[in-house]
Specification:
67% of the residues lie in helices and 0% in strands. The protein has 18 helices and no strands.
Length: 497
């Protein structure tokens, strides 16, 4: 079998011939990381996790953070060694060859583009609720929900997707500067939530602690919730896609990766404890006591019945944190938090779309996708063609699908990419032991296997439909590869630098 491995030296040479401008420092990278991490996962998926695990979602946060943490250490070493755009795709190309690199790059579409759609839907929920509570403007449900919730199309989600696309076309540095402001708003809002919710914690709200048990292959339980809430952490790896646009990447990329993850994990645990402890977060069941799956029409119908009866559980809210504050005697702060989410969640859409465009950019630069996708705008110096294509893809996903389902599908692609990164860092330690490493994964022979095993476990406990989407998507990708990429590949045609 011809693995078509592209050497690390060739990858660096290609990047130098057709490269992106280096403008990002450690502060901007950390802000990009926090901007990518803190978003729909904590603002919206808190409700999804509570429906799966109840108060046990606190353990789910720890499990997801651990898998992301060991994966981040693997990412940091590879990003410092190969400071070019492309993330896991580039690393896999250098170690495991073109076919597996294509599979990883194709999987990253599920991670970044589908994740951007999920965040856009989460933003829509907060904005619709905010307009209703603060200004009395009611957006019809048929125009604010996809078919899964009885609507037709989610117009607010389409709007924010296209707005972020336009901003990304304007320029990377400009996008990062706007992102830093939005990250500050987001973090301040969460700190206000922690200050109000944590002192109001009641021990009784944590019982029963694991109402759905520890693990279930149907998606319920603590491990199932970890598989979903994993989405709340994965934005950190988007930092590695910015390596080619980073000043002194050997030092600054690891700072951005590890630093943003540590900061966000602490914030998440405090927010989760405050939400469950001050308001309660037991799963909703039907009249017969049967657990209902998040994102299902059955749960939407049951939540509607409870709302009619005057009951509004945490797991039924599309704006979970604002709902907690409004329900615990802080309606003004709750509305302000909703306002902050409305301003700040677009930063996550921006980060995810940014990362996706850079993956496509590099795959195009390698000849695996049409070269027009790596075309750089003469004035803005951004890959505008691929940005517009990605933006349209994100808008379509956000228009019709629920946030929880999008998040789970995104996780399936993410876990695949993280698994191959863990393999790559171990293989490179054997095949390129003398290559300079600006950052070395500590305890690599323990850390990397733990990352790989953790990814497999979380994938196994994803909902069944999310697990089926991945092989179907992968099969479609192989068709595209053999019809186009295999024949046009620069490495395959001997055009390697």
């Amino acid at each position: 079998m011809n693995w078509r491995i592209k050497s690390l030296d060739a990858i660096l040479a290609t990047a130098q011939k057709k490269s992106l401008k280096r403008t990002l420092g450690p502060w901007q990278l950390t802000m990009l990381g926090i901007g990518g991490i803190i978003g729909t996962g904590i603002f919206v998926l808190t409700a999804e996790a509570a429906q799966k695990a109840g108060p046990g979602m606190m353990v789910s946060f720890v499990l997801a953070a651990f898998v992301c943490g060991v994966s981040a250490l693997c990412y940091a070493e590879l990003a410092a060694m190969v400071p070019v755009a492309g993330s896991a795709y580039t690393y896999t190309y250098a170690v495991l060859g073109e076919l597996l690199a294509w599979i990883v790059g194709w999987a990253l579409v599920l991670e970044y583009a589908v994740a951007a759609s999920a965040v856009a839907v989460g933003w829509s929920g907060y904005v619709v609720g905010l307009l209703d509570h603060l200004l009395g403007i009611h957006i019809p449900a048929v125009l604010a929900n996809g078919p899964y919730a009885g609507g037709i199309v989610n117009l607010p989600a389409i709007f924010i997707s296209l707005l972020v696309t336009w901003l990304l076309v304007l320029g990377t540095k400009e996008s990062a500067s706007v992102n830093a402001v939005l990250v500050a708003i987001k973090v301040v809002a969460l700190l206000f939530f922690i200050a109000l919710a944590v002192p109001a914690i009641k021990d009784t709200n944590f019982h029963p602690f694991m109402p759905q048990g520890f693990a279930s292959f149907g998606g319920a339980g603590v491990v199932g919730a970890a598989s979903s809430i994993f989405f709340a952490f994965v934005g950190f790896d988007a930092v590695s896609t910015a390596a080619e646009e980073t000043i002194n990447p050997q030092r600054n990329v690891p700072i951005g990766l590890v630093g943003s993850l540590i900061i966000c994990t602490i914030i998440y645990l405090l927010v989760g404890a405050g939400a469950i402890g001050s308001f309660g977060g037991q799963p909703v069941v039907d009249g017969a006591g049967t657990w209902l799956e998040p994102g299902s029409t059955a749960l939407a119908d049951r939540c509607g019945q409870l709302a009619t009866a005057g009951t509004h559980p945490l797991v039924c809210s599309k704006e979970a944190l604002a709902h907690v504050l409004r329900s615990t005697g802080h309606p003004v702060i709750g509305n302000l938090l909703g306002l902050a989410a409305g301003f700040a969640l677009p930063s996550v859409v921006l980060m995810m779309m940014y990362a996706q465009t850079r993956i496509f950019f590099v795959m195009s630069r390698d000849g695996l996708l049409p070269e027009v996708l790596s075309k750089v705008h003469a004035k803005y110096q951004t890959p505008h063609v691929v940005t517009i294509v990605t933006g349209l893809f994100v808008a379509i996903g956000a228009a019709f699908f629920p946030v929880g389902r999008l998040a789970d599908v995104s996780n399936s692609g993410t876990l695949c990419a993280f698994f191959f990164v863990a393999l790559a860092v171990m293989i490179l330690r054997k095949t390129n032991p003398d290559r300079a490493r600006g950052f070395r994964t500590p305890g690599v022979w323990i850390t990397a296997p733990l990352a790989a095993i953790g990814c497999v476990v979380l994938f196994v406990f994803l909902p069944p439909d999310a697990k089926w989407v991945f092989p179907i998507w992968g099969g479609m990708g192989l068709v595209v590869y053999y019809l186009y990429g295999y024949r046009k590949s620069h490495v395959g045609r001997g055009l390697d630098d």
